[in-house]
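Example record

One chain of 77 residues, shown exactly as stored in the release files.
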Amino acid sequence: MGLWTLLEGCLLLANALAILNEDRFLAPKGWSFQEYSGVKRNSMKGQILGLIYATQYLRVLLILLNALCIVVKVVSG
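Predicted structure tokens for this chain:
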């Protein structure tokens, strides 16, 4: 397993977090961002929610990284 494979795995994980919908998936399970603002942000669940919202905020960057990954795969074979 090389560094490129590890980076691709991280990109796939970021893509999976970015497509989670709060209304359909997160809120019914008690993972909405309104519940974990303030003091509870330091908990593990609050940190995971922060990571989910950070990846959703950076969707444009994810699109560019996905395009770069596709171009590298096409060129390198």
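Notes: The chain has a mean pLDDT of 85.
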